[in-house]
Amino acid sequence: MEKSFNKILKSHKESNGSIISLLQQIQNEFGYIPEKAVFWFSNILDIPASRFFGTATFYAQFNLKPRGKNIITACCGTACHVRGGDRLINNIKNEIGLSGEEKTTGDRKFTLEQVACVGACSAAPVVIINEKVYGKITPEKLKKEIKALKES
Amino acid sequence: MDSNMLKITINGVASEVPNGTTILEAAKLLDIHIPTLCHHPKLSVFGGCRLCIVEVKGGKRPVISCATPVADGMEVKTSTPRIEEIRKTIIELILSDHPNDCMICEKAGDCTLQELAYFYGIRENRFAGERRTYDKKDNNPFIERDMEKCILCGKCVSICDEIQGVGAIDFSYRGFNAKVCPPFEKDLNCEFCGQCVSVCPTGALTGKMWSYKGRQKDVREVDTICPYCGCGCSLTLHVRQNKVIRVSSKENTINEGWLCPKGRFGYSFIDSPERLKTPLIKENGKFREATWDEALDLIASKLKKIRSKHGPDSIGGLSSARCTNEENYIFQKFIRAAIGTNNVDHCARY
Amino acid sequence: MEKIRVKVCMGPAGILAGGAQVLSAFEKELKDKKICVELKSGCSAHKVGCRGLCAKDVLVEVAIGDNKTSYQSIKPEMVQRIVEEHIIGGKPVAEWGEDQNYRNFFKKQVKVLLSDCGEIDPEDINAYIAVHGYEAATKVLTSMTPEETIKIVEDSGIRGRGGAGFPTGYKWKQCRRDPNEPKYIICNADEGDPGAFMDRAVIEGNPHSVIEGMIIGAYAIGSHDGYVYIRAEYPLAVERLEMAITQSRQAGFLGKNILGTGFDFDIKINLGAGAFVCGESTALMRSIEGKRGMPRPTPPRSVNKGLWGKPTVLNNVETFANIPYIIRNGAKWFASYGTEKSKGTKVFALTGKIKNPGLIEVPMGITMKEIIYDIGGGIDSGKKLKAVQTGGPSGGCIPASLMDIKVDFESLAEVGSIVGSGGMIVLDEDDCMVSMAKYFLQFTQDESCGKCVPCRIGTKRLYEILERITKGKGKENDIDLLQELGKDVADASLCGLGQSAPNPIISTIKYFREEYEAHIFHKKCPAKVCRDLVTYSIIEKVCKGCGACIRACPVNAISGEKKKPHKLNQETCIRCGSCFDVCKFKSVGRE
Q1: ipTM
Q2: Which domain holds residue A18?
Q3: Which of A28, B68, B188, B243 has the fewest Cβ atoms within 10 angstroms?
Q4: Does domain B5-79 have CATH number 3.10.20.740?
Q5: C453 touching chain B per CB within 8 A
Q6: C407-463 pLDDT, tens digit each
Q7: CATH 3.10.20.600 domain extents, chain C
Q8: Where are the alpha helices (DSSP H) in C66-167?
């Protein structure tokens, strides 16, 4: 881990980055923001760890827990909403077995993220599965895709 | 007229203030009270509680007086039916997300929020709804952090960062879930100066050792000077039944109301059963109680003996910052005149 | 043979519809048939940004010489025929070409800043230069003073396209006048309004126009450092912008001593990390500084104390993209479009229950009716138009009865909405207005930074009240309470987010009060949207017993044998509507 930290530190210093860009780099490397990383960088950069935590929890992009193997991103934009986005999200939750406020399934196979708007409104409703964008997606199509991922 | 002075009329009273004065400061000079929860004159402007809103003639919407500088010719009303309506809503909103357990709250009687609820006569709440509940208890030894009572005024965050330069806490999360906490919501791990406690307008931050020792009733305030170091900070002891139950410091003092952990929380020695009350003399490796005369006689005889055998320069005196100037004066006089050496020093002198 | 150009739409929707596959099919066909090899006058197939009519993607334009033909709904397998019959045979494939609907979509639009978007290859600076790109910047830097530049922008009357409509020229002038240095210029590409993709389309379609606008702005105010604050959710826009900045630097339009004039300016990209409130100027600047995006009270204004406490101009993508066109064609030309107080054109993202969802550019002052029916082609569901939502979470719903309204800053404000950044969502009878308001409040209370009380707790309470109304638990005075609290939140909040958050509620109560009353007093959702107020049942006469609903039901509430009418158990039913969605025979009733 330390080796990765040093690599990130070097590029952070070169690019004269901010806490946000540093957190983005950390997340790119580890998939989430490990506690250890925050304290390591806090110590070496002499920036209170509370700043890192405050910033990381403010922005929706940052995860403080490891995410699942498959990332499903549901668009919650207005256009998707009026095209049945809510029901779609409930369907996804049912399919992958998520309850309440959880974002990642117990077996860490799936993470469901809801984003404000991916700006593909004309293709609403939109769901992104592992970075592939699915426009005008139907519950059946979704079920099929998730089933395929479950079996893979 | 001084070109740096600006004319302002507040509630019909005209005055002149220096350029850069905020409306809130200008009102204060005229002894006009504007309610606020998040403003602190020595901390940067936050502007979150929105209680200090006022109406400025010609303005589209109310402005917050803590952040708005006076402009020449400004006409301000600090209280109108609409302004009071909004203030009431704000206080109700805060109370709708507050435990409202004033009866057992450490801060009752000295709580800005409680006082505002009183002045605005809030009993029913139009906005009852979900309340933040936190199970976590902070296990640090000094500061009780009851975050359900936190109104997110940000003073603790600012003072920790701007005055103390520590940054032990910060805002985290956002919206209704926003809270002030140490990184990863761990227990507070700082120097425990308690500055955050001193600025908290509610019962969110209190001293752990204050709890259930008494609030405002039957509590006497005694102003004194901190005995710990040479800074000489002013202290206000809160005394109930002849026991110090709390220490604070007033803003208009040499230390501007700021204290360190020792001054604020280091008072338990006063009533400690381990505290020395008589001199002890060690005989055969064991201490025994003695009278002052007995002890002073023993010291005098030993000092004399050493001086006559080894000369006065074999003796040195080290005084303490915890003594008063007068005591220190007498001490050095004693070393110089009575012992006859210049070997005298003081812990607060480098 | 004349020059051949094939343009394939690869805007957000174009890509989704398979734009990349269509493009490679064209490349392959042109290569296989050796057309490009034999043609000396030039031949190319390239991607372009959003061409607008997203409903009919993939959109393709085939130009032979000056003879342009547009195709719609193109799939890779259709490419071969187009190449053979049109490019080789010279006869366009009429049935795939533009129809009346296609022509209507463009008829009332006026393309100014989108004039090159959807025409040029966004990844090639030469394509932009070929359509007079960077001429405006060159003119400004080599022959105009900053004051003259600001004057043109002021005279054009352009107002900020990000939502608030603040006069751009005035903003620049204020910043220029501030004696403090250095100055910063920021492009706000944190398009956070749900239901809006104008900025995304502009950056993906013509990134250089934004860069050029920023260069001109920087020169005008005297800044040497620019930032683009862009959403990380727009990876393609980020990629194209990075590419464009690099190309612009190589071509000498960015960097030290630009065009030998001694003027230095460069642009950095800052990735937003997902916070709607960062669209607010002071929050955005804090975010660039790496902090929590919590707005601060103003004054001081950003033009005096902005990024790092220095004078800063912040404009939206669309505002910057307009600037080169204004400089090139003059203030008068720009001001000839629009109304007295709202000049120029505005880009809107037209979505929702509309036949032609897409990206449109219209002159300010066009009527809503023209947008919905002439350009948008009307409602796609065959149902009746109910309202048009503009301005996203900060805007309001304009009812069908007000469709004669002009679309400009003043007129929309008059009816309780805003132009906003340009999202325009069409709602029909199937949309519940209480639920719509709840949707937006859920969004704002979620995106509230939590700094000020009215927004942090007020929007939460507004949301809670709406939620109980949609659950059939509304109280008698809830409408009054929403209005009272809404007004206080609007008046007392720190920043625009809180100040405008009640708009969706206030406007829906104003125009659709009876829907609120139906929920509260009759426990009915007229649009049959609110889950707790609808019941599902199987209409036995119609049910074919296909079993689709049994498979779709997540709680096994439906039972029955094959080819016999199914039964729905009301007690286990969670009213998710899955059965309603999957039934092909309309045998699931919803009441």
Answers
A1: 0.90
A2: 2-58
A3: A28
A4: yes
A5: yes
A6: 999 999 999 899 888 889 999 999 999 999 999 999 999 999 999 999 999 999 999
A7: 345-428
A8: 79-81, 100-107, 125-130, 135-143, 146-156
